[in-house]
Protein 1
Amino acid sequence: MNLSELNRVALAMVTKGKGILAADESSGTIKKRFDSIKLDSTEEHRRTYREMLFTAPGAAGAVSGVILYDETIHQKTRDGTPFAQYLARNGMIPGIKVDLGAKPLAGFPGETITEGLDGLRERLIEYHGLGARFAKWRAVIDIAAGIPTAFAIQANAHALARYAALCQENDIVPIVEPEVLMDGAHSLGRCAEVTEQVLTVVFDELFAQRVQLEGMVLKPNMVISGKKASERAPPEAVAEATVRVLKRHVPAAVPGIAFLSGGQSPTEATLHLSLMNRLGPFPWALTFSYGRALQDTALKAWGGVPANFAAGQTEFARRAQLNGAATTGRYAPEMESRAA
Ligand code: 13P
């Protein structure tokens, strides 16, 4: 393991003004996204869509890295350049999703365990050869009556740390993603409580399994009301609660925290990030690693129509730039109408 190289990459991933594009939707998830624009999920459509995002003029200035899916890291731009190579040449670090998804946890109804540890070392070696310098593993924790259980949190944290240690062994920066879902009707307070439990156990496991904190990036949920909550906490409350929880649980040795958007609207996700950055300085960088919040409006603008390729790119670059501004607290909702 080369810790100084891992630390250099981790710092580059969370550099001010930039964040990460999560474009690692599995075949099932991208099909759902394409269904929303009535587009068949063929390999060529998936390739074209990813090319639209990666080559969007003006986006690279706000994108430090891109998380790819196994199929995507094997694909090329129209002119034959492998995506990973294209990204690296344009200053965006290629990353790769390596988990194989959250599956039902036997004996624990309503809870999941993320799979993918078997054979992971060999896959990491292959992905490093293809240019990946960081990876992602997503653990999923749902909130409902009687869940999450302490056991499900422990099992998921254990797997996250196993993954992270294997990544570092192979000179790949692990993005450690314990996602507390915002799907339920729970309050912000309940989300805070569960997020605290999860982060406590995750960092215990990372220490126990000798993961070097300087060579990782944390990808947490924000502390936020459930989508179905009757009363949703305002943006300022989300920012304050999220920062409070992270200060309590994330050691200063971690270079950066890159949030998932988790079903927030694009403008909410940008505003929350900006409000948090205004509460700094912090020992770590706070940035984005958004999937839906960066892509949703671009996907609609494109709509699978070749003539709208540039319109999709303009929209993606706009959202990336607005989120880039949010990493320094300089985003304001008024910028929505002026940007790009
Ligand atoms: P969302 O921002 O859409 O939550 O996706 C981020 C991600 O990579 C989830 O694993």
Note: The mean pLDDT is 98.
Protein 2
Amino acid sequence: MNGHEPRIIAFFCNFCSYLAADMAGVSRIQYPPNVRIIRLMCTGRLSPLYILEAFARGADGVLVAGCHPGDCHFIKGNLYARRRVSMLKKLLEMMGIDPRRLRLEWVSASEGNKLANVIKEFVEEVRSLGANPLKEVNA
Ligand code: FES
């Protein structure tokens, strides 16, 4: 461990992952406080620009979590999000940013435990990658 505390921006769907975070809180399931949650009405509403902006502003990692395939309230929003995240991972790699800094997960409203585990695992992974290299460029 290098003592670096990662800052992670999380985009959560209102109908599933955001409720899972709420359930984790109500059930007193702990997860690291490194995550700043932004609620979306659907991951399909997540513009790739929001993710790039998060990295440009120094986020060390971005976590996107939405409804399981087949459960999206807008039918295909999560599938569009999956396609965008996959495309962005390639773009990040070309920009010299490790694509592991961006992760997409499916987490339903009843999966508070899963969400806490995903956050713990992601924080550890991003911590092992060190600080966002764009921080040095912007410093
Ligand atoms: Fe949850 Fe679309 S409504 S991902």
Note: The longest strand covers residues 8-13.
